[in-house]
Recover the amino acids of this structure.
């Protein structure tokens, strides 16, 4: 991927920069347009920091009307647009393009409505994920999907990435918790999908928009459902001599009809890095560490904790600690939550991968990763959302060593190929972006990708929104729309008819 | 007039390829159990998936099931039950409402109609449980989307786009759903004798509590008697369902009883009795009266539902009951007129949502938009999306016309 090729910057657009900046200024006054190189530096990358690119100009609109006018102008003038929330994408989804307007939604930062009887919050897209919970927690409510980046990432970005988090095993992903959207299409049309009611009318455009990575439209308002906070939560910290036993324990818990509020696993290198960093008493003599959190009414939690403990022991756990207080529960999580920075301490750089596999394939995939680690000469530490088979291998490398980034990327690509091979997918929650773009053919045929691109064409016929992301090769909509007629005689004597 | 009944995905592909080349419209059906919904088809040819059947993958430990699109839903539910699992979104069965036997329908139809049930409030609809599809577009091209794992953001969520598309975008040949364990027990707390507005308040209170209520419905006086052959009696019943592990249910029931002790007379429905009630409400049995009186299924914000029906009744006689805390209103038009414009205007006036005419005779369905008409920009987008899958409009043309 260091060979990453982005769409060629359009010379004509570059030459018209002054005119485009002036047009943006005419739409968004004052500090809403950022154009100096120094100021634009803040926006040159997202959380996939291996890639940097200054945009043509940065625009920070404040109203839906401004967004509509910006998009209409860009559409009419053939100018590309990269939407951006907080810039925490791990896949390069909000990486700027040299010839594109970077449309930053961070000034859309207000909660518009809190409706307790219907248990929904209506928010502007720049509100942070945590900001929604903060707005309702005094009344005992919260917004369930909780990406680790929740203090920073925007709800609009969550919609665009269909983000997940520890709680998603029990409470669903962003897609299952968003009820309505307002969005602006590239032609400037403003449309509303869904609302405070369930199931939007007509086609499930809400479902299509969720996870569309800024390629289909710009989200300007989000309606999410909120939930009552569970009365209690307790966690169990379980260590196993082998990852197979850990994997089997996860399967048995789910097999017993228990869907925990969170179920996370770490492998030995990740345990060690986390324990060195935060010292919370993780056992260092185990191959797999499982954190299982049960939430709900106390009677239920007590009942299930006992079940989980029994299942863990039956699977040969060597450590099994049950949190006795909320402080202890949080300490169990502290190491897991600090896993990324902890790994950051032991290695100058790391790449965070994001494949998902059928749970039963975990031992095979871990063994495969060990082999790949030797092959590429790089270390890997693993944290996973164990309940749903979503792996986050962290590949350690040093960008200052020539060739190491390329090796790390090759290693990552090999891991994802392995995930696909065992029946899994390239990305569970971080998105395709630029990072996994060129791996899409590992999972999809040309026909699969063509149909996805045709959907893109229905929203954005000139490929102006976030080009160079998701699709390895952009084909013109006119070409995609052409029909190859399969010359038609009435088919098959062999198909039954009556 | 040809009825195609392919038995393999390859045969489906060749039928659609032929139809695309000839620009010959197809009515796409499973077992045809929901033919009574949507604008009546006027196609010369029918593509029936009823013989494209069979579960091709079921891994209980992985909570995943793949089946050919024409697999009977009854077969799937039975298989899952053998492993103590279920489709958690409780797909409703439109059969009885349309005067047909219960138990018909295919898994592909479940997705195409985005079915759900009383547990929709907590567990979502078919759209929330579909993981992947194989399909043939109206262009006559086979494609796949999604996969077999829950966490997956690789490419657009095209599987979700099939939910509620009523076979107008592509013909699904295989569908993969997430499945979940059946709750150990269920219990329902019924509050008796509440008026609609009191019920709305009680349901909001219960849903906003930590009792983890998985379904909340209100069956007013006059309708209650038609639930489970009169087992509920005739007084209005506001129903709160609790599911899970016995110790948890006992605790949560207590919590609700305490919270609602002054709301009205409380009654507890255990196990099978609770199940029977929710099954009847799921399938709209109270209005399964053997008539063609128009029935609306309205999705709107819960707190406004009873006000909408109150306003409606100022002008026309209608019976109603409420599921999803009120967010789902089932309306039967007692004078036999659909009153589409009036119903939709009232839904708009009460905070928005959408009304689908789920029962009406063919003449009415040919004249009245069954699915909610959309504002121009949205409609134009939906038409472009349709064209991206089916440029010659050969799959169920006009079925969703609004
Ligand atoms: C430390 C760390 C931990 C993380 N943990 C998790 C995790 O646990 N789970 C998880 O799922 N992700 C995680 N992420 C990834 C990231 O936080 C999420 O993808 C998040 O949703 C991105 O939100 P954002 O506002 O930063 O979006 P950006 O990075 O700004 O944009 C992401 C994508 O969304 C598009 N976009 C943004 N706003 C809009 C809008 N209003 N309309 C249309 N398109 C828009 C952009 O074009 C881009 O394609 C983590 C990231 C970091 C750095």
């Amino acid at each position: 991927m260091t060979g990453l090729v982005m769409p060629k910057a359009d010379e004509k657009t570059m030459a018209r920069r002054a005119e485009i900046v002036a047009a943006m200024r005419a739409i968004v006054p004052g500090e809403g347009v950022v154009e100096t190189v120094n100021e634009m530096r803040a926006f040159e990358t997202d959380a996939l920091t291996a890639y940097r690119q200054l945009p043509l100009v940065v625009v920070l609109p404040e109203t839906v009307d401004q967004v509509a006018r910006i998009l209409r102008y860009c559409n009419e003038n053939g100018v590309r647009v990269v939407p951006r929330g907080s810039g925490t994408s791990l896949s390069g989804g909000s990486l700027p393009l040299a010839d594109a307007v970077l449309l930053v939604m961070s000034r859309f930062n207000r909660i518009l409505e809190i409706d307790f009887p219907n248990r929904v919050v209506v928010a502007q897209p720049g509100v942070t994920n945590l900001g929604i919970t903060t707005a309702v927690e005094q009344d005992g409510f919260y917004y369930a999907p909780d990406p680790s980046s929740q203090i920073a990432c925007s709800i609009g970005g969550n919609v665009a990435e269909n983000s997940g988090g520890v709680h998603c095993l029990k409470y669903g992903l962003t897609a299952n918790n968003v009820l309505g959207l307002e969005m602006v299409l590239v032609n400037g049309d403003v449309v509303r999908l869904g609302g405070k009611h369930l199931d939007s009318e007509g086609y499930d455009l809400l479902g299509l928009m969720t996870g569309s990575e800024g390629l289909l439209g710009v989200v300007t308002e989000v309606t999410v459902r909120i939930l009552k906070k569970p009365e209690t939560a307790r966690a169990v910290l379980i260590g196993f001599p082998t990852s197979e036993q850990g994997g089997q324990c996860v399967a048995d818990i789910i097999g017993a009809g228990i869907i925990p509020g969170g179920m996370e696993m770490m492998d030995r290198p990740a345990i060690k890095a986390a324990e060195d960093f935060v010292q919370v008493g993780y056992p260092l003599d185990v191959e797999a560490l499982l954190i299982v959190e049960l939430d709900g009414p106390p009677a239920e939690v007590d009942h299930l904790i006992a079940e989980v403990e029994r299942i863990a022991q039956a699977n040969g756990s060597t450590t099994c600690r049950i949190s006795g207080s909320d402080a202890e529960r949080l300490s169990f999580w502290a190491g897991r939550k600090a896993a990324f920075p902890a790994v950051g301490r032991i290695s100058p750089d790391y790449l965070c991968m994001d494949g998902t596999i059928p749970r039963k394939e975990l031992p095979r995939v871990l063994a495969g990763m060990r082999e790949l680690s030797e092959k590429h000469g790089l270390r890997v530490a693993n944290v996973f959302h164990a309940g749903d088979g979503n792996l986050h291998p962290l590949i350690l490398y040093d960008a200052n060593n020539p060739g190491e980034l390329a090796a790390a990327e090759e290693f990552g690509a090999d891991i994802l190929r392995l995930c696909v091979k065992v029946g899994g997918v390239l990305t569970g929650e971080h998105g395709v972006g630029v990072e996994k773009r060129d791996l899409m053919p590992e999972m999809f045929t040309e026909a699969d990708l063509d149909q996805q691109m045709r959907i893109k064409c229905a929203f954005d016929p000139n490929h102006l929104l976030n080009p160079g992301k998701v699709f390895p090769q952009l084909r013109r909509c006119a070409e995609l729309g052409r029909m190859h007629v399969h010359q038609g005689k009435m088919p098959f004597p062999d198909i039954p008819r009556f | 007039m040809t009825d195609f009944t392919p038995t393999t995905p390859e045969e489906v592909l060749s039928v659609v390829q032929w139809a695309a080349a000839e620009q010959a419209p197809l009515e796409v059906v499973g077992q045809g159990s929901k033919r009574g919904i949507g604008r009546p088809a006027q196609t010369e040819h029918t593509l029936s998936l009823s013989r494209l059947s069979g579960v091709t993958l079921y891994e209980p430990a992985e909570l995943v099931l793949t089946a050919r699109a024409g697999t009977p839903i009854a077969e799937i539910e039975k298989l899952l039950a053998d492993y103590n699992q279920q489709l958690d979104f409780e797909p409703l069965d439109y059969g009885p409402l349309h005067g047909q036997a219960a138990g018909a329908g295919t898994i592909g139809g479940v997705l195409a109609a985005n079915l759900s049930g009383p547990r929709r409030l907590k567990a979502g609809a078919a759209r929330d449980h579909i993981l992947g599809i194989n399909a043939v577009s109206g262009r006559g091209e086979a494609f796949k989307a999604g996969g077999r794992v829950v966490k997956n953001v690789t490419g657009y969520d095209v599987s979700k786009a099939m939910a509620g598309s009523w076979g107008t975008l592509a013909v699904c040949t295989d569908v993969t759903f997430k499945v979940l364990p059946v709750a150990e027990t269920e219990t329902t707390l019924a509050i008796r004798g509440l008026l609609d507005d009191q019920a709305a308040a009680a349901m909001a209170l219960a849903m906003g509590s930590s009792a983890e209520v998985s379904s909340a419905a209100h069956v007013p006086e006059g309708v209650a008697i038609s639930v489970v052959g009169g087992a509920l009696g005739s007084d209005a019943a506001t129903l709160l369902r609790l599911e899970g592990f016995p110790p948890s249910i006992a605790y949560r029931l207590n919590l609700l009883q305490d919270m609602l002790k002054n709301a009205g007379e409380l009654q507890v429905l255990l196990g099978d009795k609770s199940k029977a009630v929710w099954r009847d409400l799921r399938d709209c049995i109270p209005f399964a009266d053997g008539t063609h009186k128009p029935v609306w299924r309205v999705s709107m914000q819960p707190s406004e539902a009873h006000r909408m029906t109150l306003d409606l009744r100022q002008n026309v006689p209608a019976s109603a009951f409420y599921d999803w805390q009120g967010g789902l209103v089932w309306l039967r038009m007692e004078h036999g007129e659909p009153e589409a414009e009036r119903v939709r205007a009232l839904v708009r006036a009460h905070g928005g949502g959408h009304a689908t005419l789920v029962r009406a005779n063919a003449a009415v369905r040919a004249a009245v938009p069954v699915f909610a008409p959309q504002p121009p920009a949205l409609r134009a987008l939906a038409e472009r999306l349709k064209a991206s899958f089916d440029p010659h409009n050969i799959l169920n043309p006009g079925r969703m016309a609004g």
